Amino acid sequence: MPQILKMRNRLFFAFLVASLLPLCATAQMGGNYIYNFLNFNQSSRIAGLGGTLIAVYDEDPSLLIENPSLIGKRHHTSLLLNATDYFSNAAYGSALYSHTFKKAGSFAFSMQFVNYGKFSLTDESGTEMGYFHAGDYAATVGWGRQLDSNFTIGANLKLIYSGYESYQSFGIAADLAASYVNQKKRLALSLMIKNLGSPIVNYVPGQFEKIPFDIQLAFSQKFKFLPVRYHISLHSLYKWNMAYVGTNDPLLEYNVMTDEPVYPSKVAQFFDNMFRHVTVGIEIIPVKYLSIQFAYNHNRHQEMKIPQKRTFAGFSYGFTVDIKSIRIGFSRAHYATGAVPNFFNFSVNIDALSKMSQSKKNKKLERIN
Q1: Does some domain include residue 269?
Q2: Which of 116, 181, 225, 282 is deepest in the core (most CB within 10 A)?
Q3: Strand spans (E) along the chain
Q4: How far lies 158's CA from each of 79, 99, 110, 297, in Å?
Q5: Distance between CA atoms of 38 and 138, rounded to whole angstroms?
Q6: Which of 137, 181, 148, 171 is nearest to 40 (CA)?
Q7: Does some domain include residue 257?
C-alpha cells in the first residue's frame, strides 16, 4: 500500500507539470516583467555557481528559497541571513527559517526585500518637492517532501508587495519543483517551474502586467576520486530565442561601405541561442568544511559584454565555509565593468548547535565527577 501511494504522488506531480507546461509556454512569451527581484539570488553559493537553479542534496539552507524540493528534515531549525550590496545604492537581503513538523512535514519560511534607495521627487519643471523611496518585498512559505530514497518534491507560495513612490502593486506567485537524488552515484537532478502567478493589484489600474516566469533544469554530480562537483543548469526552457532579433540588437555590426546591417550566420545564431540557456559551474571541495565555486553564465556575458573591451561579464566565483553547524558564504558575480555585486550568507542550525553545546557540558560534568 505505501508503494502505491508513493507512485500515485509521483504520477500526480508529473501530470501537474505536464499540464502546466503548454499553458506557460504560450502565455508568457516575450514582453517586459514586473517583480524582477524574484530572480535575485538569495544564496551566495547559487550566485557563485552562475545564478540559476542548482541541484545539491546537502544541509545548506541557502538553497531552499530557490529550490523548495530540497527542503527536508536535515534543515530542521536552520536559520539563514542573506545580504547583497547590489548596483549603485541598491541593496537587498533575506532571512529564512526552516522547521519540520511531525505531521505537516518540512517547511521553510522566508522574507526578502530590495531597497533601491532614496530618490528626489520633482515636478515637470525640475523643482524638488521632497524625496521618496522604492522597494520590493516578498514573504514566502516553502514546503518539501521526500517521496522515497530518490525523489523529493516541493513548492513555494509567495506574497509580493512592490512600492515606488505613489505606485503600488500586490501579487501572488508559486514555484513547483521536483528533484531526483542518487547518493551512490553522487548525482542530483532538479526541475522547477518558477513564478507561476500574476499581480492582484497593478501599479496602474486596468493595465495587466506579467511576472518573470521561468522553467529551469539543473544537474550536478561529484566525481568519485576527485574533490570536485560539476553543475549544469538550463534556464528559460519555455522559449528558444534568447537574443535580440534583427535591428533591435544593440551590438549589431554594419557594413562600412553600404551601411547595411551584417547579421551573424544561422549556425552562429543557433549555437549562441543554445548556449544562452546554459550555465556551467564547478565546486572544488579540498576539505569537508570548505567549498570553492566558479561558474560561467553565457547569457549574462552576451547581454553585458562590451565589444571593444574584454570583460569578465558572466563569470562568478565564491566560497562556503561550514564549521560546526555554522555556514558562512561569500561570492561575487560580474555583470559589467564596475558592476560586481557581493553576496553574503550566514546560517546556523540551532538544534545541532544546542546539542553540541549540551554534549560539551556533559563531558565537563563527567570529568568533574
Answers
A1: no
A2: 181
A3: 78-85, 91-101, 105-122, 128-146, 151-164, 167-182, 187-201, 214-222, 228-234, 253-254, 261-262, 278-287, 290-297, 315-323, 326-333, 342-349
A4: 19, 18, 9, 26
A5: 8
A6: 137
A7: no
pLDDT tens, residue by residue, 290-346: 999 999 999 999 888 877 778 899 999 999 999 888 999 999 999 987 789 999 999
Radius of gyration of the chain from its Cα atoms, rounded to whole angstroms: 23
- Quick one: which of 145, 64, 42 has its CA closest to 108? 64
3-state class (DSSP) for residue 268: helix
Set of cell numbers at residue 318 = 565564491
> How many domains is the chain built from?
1
Task: Give the residue numbers spanning the domain of 221.
Answer: 2-242+277-368
Whole-angstrom Cα distance, residue 349 to residue 341?
Answer: 27
| 121 falls within a domain | yes
Specify the amino acid at residue 251: L
pLDDT digits (tens, 9 = 90+) for 333-361: 999 877 899 999 999 999 888 877 666 66
Smallest CA-to-CA distance from 316 within 329, 335, 303, 299 is with 335
Q: pLDDT-derived band of residue 258, with 50, 70 and 90 as boundaries?
A: confident
Q: For residue 118, what is the domain's CATH number?
A: 2.40.160
Q: Give helix then strand counts, H and E, for the chain.
A: 5, 16
Is 254 within the bounds of a domain? no
Plot region of 186 (φ>0 → left; ψ -120 to 50 → alpha; else → beta): left
Q: Using alpha carbons only, give the angle 128, 129, 134 rounded to the nearest 5 degrees.
A: 95
Separation between Cα atoms, residue 328 and residue 356, nearest integer Å: 19
